[in-house]
Design goal:
alpha/beta
């Protein structure tokens, strides 16, 4: 019998959704039946063997709807293997590797509610037309003119797929809190 896996995401511009889609495609095989859904479309997580949740980052934090999802499902998520990822532009900055420890801290509110069996951070992308707020769009435009960020898709598809492959082995085990940090 296949184990059901939920890959769920919160995304304002679509970059996090694309990462969730690849994770879902990679996990889907003879062992796993995978659903990839926006967090706002998930009613509950009871019927899933494991859950992967990801959020875009806004102002150094998971999106509000992502934290609402974690809080709403906290009790059930604590009973099953749970992996989490975040997507942010800070990792695309010049010398972005020196910011990794700072970005890693943005996972702490999630970790405080639900321990993860694995977690990761991925660079996203910047499409100024998709930024909903005029003030944020202006800030990003100025930042791109100053060379802080570059527009475009900065996702590392090979790294995302590798992490999803690693999750397969973790999810085949029935040890929900054997933590692996990437």
């Amino acid at each position: 019998m296949k184990r059901r896996i939920l890959v769920t995401y919160a995304s304002h511009t679509g970059f996090t959704q694309g990462i969730a889609d690849l994770i879902g495609q990679t996990l889907a095989d003879d062992n796993f039946d995978v659903d990839v859904l926006s967090m706002k479309d998930v009613n509950d997580v009871l019927d899933y063997h494991a859950v992967v949740a990801g959020s875009g980052i806004q102002a150094g934090a998971w999106l509000p709807e992502a934290m609402d999802f974690i809080r709403k499902n906290q009790q059930e998520l604590n009973k099953k293997p749970f992996a989490a990822f975040l997507v942010c532009m800070t990792l695309t900055m010049k010398d972005g590797d020196k910011y990794r420890n700072h970005v890693r801290e943005w996972m702490q509110p999630v970790n405080a509610l639900v321990p993860t069996v694995s977690q990761n951070m991925f660079a996203g992308g910047l499409d100024l037309k998709k930024i909903p707020s005029n003030s944020d769009r202006l800030k990003f435009k100025v930042s791109t003119l100053l060379g802080i960020w570059k527009e475009g898709d900065h996702r590392d598809w090979a790294a995302i797929q590798k992490w999803a492959e690693d999750l397969k082995a973790i999810f085949l085990k029935d040890t929900p809190h054997n933590q692996v940090r990437l």
